Amino acid sequence: MQDTVTHPSPNAKRETLALRSYSFISYSTQALVVSFLPLFFLDKGYNESQIGFLYSVGPMISIFANMFTGFISDKNQTIVKLLRILFIFQFIAIGLLHQVDSFSITCLIMTLFYFCQTPINPLNDSLILLSSKYTGTPYALVRIFGSLGFAICAYSFGLILKEVGTGQTLNLLLLTITASILGTFIIKDYHGSSKKFDISGLMTILKQPKVVYFFILLFFISTAHRMYEGFLAVTLRHIGASDSFVGLAWLISALSEIPVLFLLGKYGDRFKEIPLLIFASIMYALRMFLLSSITEPYWVVVTQLMHSVSFGIYFSTALRYMSQLLPDHFRASGQAIFTIIWMGIAGSMSGLAGGHIYANFGHQLFYQLATAFAVVGAIGFFFYNFKYGDR
Questions:
Q1: pLDDT tens, residue by residue, 260-288
Q2: d(Cα 116, Cα 109) in Å, to the nearest integer?
Q3: What is the DSSP code (8-state) at residue 341?
Q4: pTM of the predicted model as reported, rounded to 2 decimal places
Q5: Percent share of the chain, pLDDT over 90
Q6: Helices (H), 191-272
Q7: Which residues contact 148 (CB under 8 A, 6 or more apart)?
């Protein structure tokens, strides 16, 4: 249901434009981190196992980072100032990364970077959700500009790095982070009452078999997705793709999710959530299976188009179902568990174990394992629907 405008702002249009511009800018950094930072480390001489470890640092640190920044934001009643500080420390971390070659020192610096980078999206989402009560602009119509920013910048940076080399990835990161810092000066800080994470709520949730079963199934699908996300760029490089093609692949996936998110926001309530999650899980399994057998870069384009019917449906539907599964006073605790599974456990496992498998057995077995995770998730949701679907 759409938030109502409780305090209409006389500058609603200008505030919405500022938020959309900021969202576009802030997601440009994520486009570099996801699409090209793995290639930077690959060209620096790190193997897939080391890259997998670096990729797992973010999810591991995100569990603590999100709880810490959430506490700081609630205590000081500010999101924008916290975002600005996080961007400044990101800039410092990338500046330090310029100076080192040691893998162990790189891990330490990336820990600092990810501590400041992983809370950005949740804080952005909170800010946009709060803003909708004042501007009257629904969350999706602001958040969609983040997807556009990711898509356009992923492709544009790919074209640039094809010409200048992946060694310039860090300089581009410094540029996008600087733009994000400046962006925090054009957006307004919105405040509102929000239910906080409560450990008693967590324990109450974990005593319910239906809820625990649901979160276990989310883990399987999340792991399949994070395996794909972490190693797609490396896979493309190994099968001969240029940096511009890597950017094109991410452009296609980001653009493909936009119409699906819009349609689900408008008509999603006409469909039951669990059948949608079964469908998304099957699409994930098919997508991962195709990736396991691809040897030509252009076929990856087909699998990237499937992003809309895998991630696009899975992520938004899972959040929607969780909002129905849990009562309001446990919503924050449920969101915390979802974040821990999505960003923390699944991301760490896909980076550590996945990186080891990729380095020692190649991309075929790696994506076959991701396929298996998705299949288990699909079967699990089928039985979940059979047991709980009509309740």
A1: 877 876 776 778 889 999 999 999 999 99
A2: 11
A3: I
A4: 0.77
A5: 33
A6: 199-206, 209-238, 243-267
A7: 24, 254, 255, 258
Q: Nearest-CA neighbor of 140 among 36, 269, 23, 225? A: 23
DSSP for 127-138, written as a single string: HHHHHHHHH---
- Report the C-alpha gap between 104 and 315 in whole angstroms: 34
Per-position DSSP letters for 25-93, written without gaps between them:
HHHHHHHHHHHTHHHHHHHTT--HHHHHHHHHHHHHHHHHHHHHHHHHHHHHT-SHHHHHHHHHHHHHH
Give the residue among 20, 258, 254 at the shortest CA–CA distance from 156. 254
Cα-based distances in Å from 331 to 36, 79, 198, 247, 301:
35, 20, 10, 36, 37
Q: How far apart are CA 319 and CA 138, in angstroms?
A: 16
Side chain identity at residue 365, one-letter code: L
Residue 353 is encoded by which pair of tokens?
Answer: 């174990």
* Span 310-367, pLDDT tens digits: 988 888 788 778 777 776 556 555 666 777 787 778 878 888 788 888 888 888 999 9
Q: Which of 170, 145, 115 is nearest to 343 (CA)?
A: 115
Type of residue at 177: I
What domains can be seen in the chain, in order of their start residue? 10-192 (1.20.1250.20), 195-391 (1.20.1250.20)
Contact 355, 47 (CB under 8 A): no
How far is the CA of 177 from the CAs of 93, 119, 215, in angstroms? 11, 14, 34
Q: How far are the Cα atoms of 115, 116, 165 from residue 170, in angstroms, in the given order?
A: 17, 16, 11
Q: pLDDT for 76-128, tens place per residue? A: 888 899 999 999 999 999 999 988 889 999 999 999 999 999 888 888 887 88
